[in-house]
Amino acid sequence: MSRLAVRKTYKLFIGGAFPRSESGRSYAVTSPDGDFLANAARASRKDARDAVVAARKAFPGWSGATAYNRGQILYRVAEMLEGRRAQLAGELGLGRAEALASVDAAVDRLVWYAGWSDKIAAVHGTANPVAGPYFNLSSPEPTGVVALVAPADPLLGLVSVVAPVIVTGNTCVVVASEPSPLAAITFAEVLATSDLPGGVVNVLTGRQAELAPWLAAHMDVNALDLTGVTDADLALRCEQEAAGNLKRVLRPVPEPADWTADPGLTRMTRFLETKTVWHPLGV
């Protein structure tokens, strides 16, 4: 007898679990040719608030972990992503060779950031010369909870904005690519099986215009990355909302962005704060 295939249900990823949207809503995801692919959960403001609560709860443990441990976990994410190579390639809506190359680039990007986990403090921190009998040391510390609007590139772009935020000890809430959210949820499944503590990364699918302003205005979000926002009016509104608690804001990247380029250190240092300590000599 022939059998019916079990179709995958694409849910949200909040606090290490995969709930449906509390609103019960979903929206159709289609291929570039207009063919139906799947229904994705359409997150609500309540889902966004739940995600922020989960991210804040995870922050003390994740920021308190050693940099080496965070790097090990990111490397484990890369290993698990490599194992899902074929599945993710099929969800990117690209030609086979291009899709596989994109997955490979995402794996390599994770490995690259994993290597920086215990080195960024040495590069970004410093011992400051002072006129007095003191040690004066500056060291980077994570900002806190970062809200991210992911770019259109559904995997490499997503990894390129999430990895630098979490490797430095922040936690995050991500609004996935609105037209291409499927790979983001499969990536969340990778995270859920990679020793990453629940709540460090939370993934929402749905409408940018509905979710981004509420995350921008949320008083328990410390920073905002608007990389994936293409609507200038929406970006301006989010920046205005973010001023309520003086969030750090990373402005949108002009499309089309080249996510294969050398990422540099900017995305890591953007969401770090500098702590400076004075200590008397000889004590």
UniProtKB/TrEMBL annotation:
<dbReference type="InterPro" id="IPR016162">
    <property type="entry name" value="Ald_DH_N"/>
</dbReference>
<protein>
    <submittedName>
        <fullName>Acyl-CoA reductase-like NAD-dependent aldehyde dehydrogenase</fullName>
    </submittedName>
</protein>
<dbReference type="Pfam" id="PF00171">
    <property type="entry name" value="Aldedh"/>
</dbReference>
<dbReference type="InterPro" id="IPR016161">
    <property type="entry name" value="Ald_DH/histidinol_DH"/>
</dbReference>
<keyword id="KW-0560">Oxidoreductase</keyword>
<feature type="domain" description="Aldehyde dehydrogenase">
    <location>
        <begin position="21"/>
        <end position="249"/>
    </location>
</feature>
<dbReference type="InterPro" id="IPR015590">
    <property type="entry name" value="Aldehyde_DH_dom"/>
</dbReference>
